[in-house]
Write a structure and sequence with these properties.
Strand order of the largest sheet: 7-6-8-5-11-12-13
Mean pLDDT: 95
Distance between the termini: 51 Å
CATH architecture of the largest domain: 3-Layer(aba) Sandwich
Number of domains: 3
Radius of gyration: 22 Å
Length: 449
């Protein structure tokens, strides 16, 4: 099939382009700018386009156009595709189409989606199960973030954000899985869900669209999630609550204990133990044996930027995490504090998303950094300009986080100088962002002796 991908430079979109290419399709695409790692990956497969939009790439011979969220409604290639009456799908619509005749597993929720999905994938791969997948981060043992084949099963990380400029439906609504996990609900994406109830409505609608007899695992410790489940009028769905499994922390290891047997994990934190329990329940429903699943999970080392260890020597530990929304920040900081109760903890958070840079949303972060002995907020003023948002008042940030002692940096040099003061510090240093700290080379700094 001849397929054109509009806005192919995004994390998922470039992986989808590669997966389509590997599946034997003729793939073209475009984007206004493409950065690494997408740039190098696309180039390695002969898919890297010249920067910019080119309507001439589209003609009546294009059988399918896949439209990414990064494109605007007035995109010239989209206009050409509409003029030619070409078939246009968002990527979740395409994934749903690809998986129509497969058993579908979707991991949804405001946090823990990537790790739970990764755990399921890790177990299935370990046990030799054939499956397709879509995940939002690189994972050890998998060459790409998307696989498209004739496998009878597909595992999908289900994002609740909108699908495309002309498909303003949360991605998870498209997938209609037979098995789904909802890890928790915490208001996010204020730019498209301006109130908490708007956000909760996504998950109400998600449940309403599930196929008959679908199985729903949900984390019982989340009050908002429990209320959504309890209010669901559907009686044909199987709602199965799960809790934090019993585990112990010994000599820096989190150890799951099941039926008297111990399973030392390479990931840690209460939230990751919850993720492991959800993954276990899904794999059991897919026919795996409990001991096989738990044994496989002991070799799971996490997805990229999910409590990723960058450095360890003596008393010093440096971790990088994708945490950016309030619930993620809270869980990640607490996980480090619990794992290293006697260490000095330095937490550094980049405000990068629309929600985190919105002064009306900042109050959601109150006390999230409290377990840290020292805390830093970094944001780039150019990011605010790009998003057409007003500058933030440092004192307002301190007030909303309820941390008068916050260090607040807005320039790369300030952050770099601060990091250099920590180079030989005996501390656990946690860096959290869904961005790149405006290009500051965190990994090189972390590995510098």
């Amino acid at each position: 099939m001849r397929i054109h991908v509009i806005a192919m430079g995004g994390a998922v979109m470039h992986n989808l382009s590669i997966a389509l290419h590997l599946a034997g399709h003729q793939v073209s695409g475009s984007d206004d700018e493409i950065y690494n790692p997408a740039k190098d990956r696309l180039q390695a497969h002969g898919l890297l386009p010249a920067p910019g939009w080119d309507p001439d790439k589209l003609d009546a011979g294009v059988e399918l156009v896949i439209l990414g969220m990064h494109a605007k409604k007035d995109n010239p290639e989209l206009a050409k595709a509409q003029e030619l009456k070409l078939r246009i799908l968002s990527y979740p619509e395409f994934i749903a189409l690809h998986a129509t005749n497969k058993r579908r597993v979707v991991v949804a929720g405001s946090h823990g989606k990537t790790t739970t999905t990764a755990m399921i994938m890790h177990v299935l791969r370990h046990l030799g199960t054939a499956f397709d997948y879509l995940i939002g981060a690189p994972l050890e043992g998998f060459d790409h973030m998307i696989r498209l084949s004739d496998a009878p099963l597909m595992v999908i990380e289900g994002d609740e954000y909108l699908s495309s400029p002309i498909d303003p439906v949360p991605k998870i609504i498209h997938y209609r899985p037979h098995f789904t996990v909802i890890t928790g609900i915490a208001w996010d994406h204020i730019n498209v869900f301006p109130t908490k109830n708007d956000y909760l409505e996504v998950f109400r609608n998600y449940l309403s669209q599930l196929p008959e007899q679908a199985i729903v695992w949900y984390y019982q410790g989340d009050e908002d999630l429990c209320r959504v489940v309890e209010a669901c009028p559907r009686t044909d769905l199987a709602f199965l609550p799960y809790q934090t499994p019993y585990h112990e922390i010994r000599e820096g290891l989190s150890i799951l204990v099941r039926d008297g047997k111990e399973y030392p994990m390479q990931v840690f934190g209460q939230h990751n133990m919850q993720n492991a329990e959800a993954a276990l329940q899904v794999c059991l429903a897919l026919g795996c044996r409990e001991t096989d699943v738990l044994s496989a999970l002991t070799s799971f080392r996490g997805a990229a930027k999910r409590l990723q260890a960058l450095y360890a020597s003596g008393q010093t530990r440096i971790y990088l995490d994708f945490a950016h929304a309030p619930s993620k920040v809270r869980a990640t900081v607490q996980a480090i504090r619990t794992q290293y109760p006697d260490s000095r903890l330095v937490a550094i958070l980049e405000l990068h998303t629309f929600s985190s840079l919105n002064k009306n949303f900042l109050s959601q972060y109150r006390n999230t950094l409290d377990p840290a002995d020292e805390a830093v907020i970094f944001y780039n003023k150019h990011t605010l300009e790009i998003k057409r948002m007003p500058d933030l008042d440092p004192e307002e940030i301190k007030s909303q986080f309820d941390r008068p002692d916050l260090f607040i940096f807005t320039e790369n040099a300030q952050l770099e100088n601060y990091l250099n003061t920590l180079t030989k510090t005996q501390a656990v240093i946690l860096l959290m962002s869904s961005g790149t700290f405006n290009g500051v080379d965190i990994k090189s700094w972390a590995q510098k002796e």
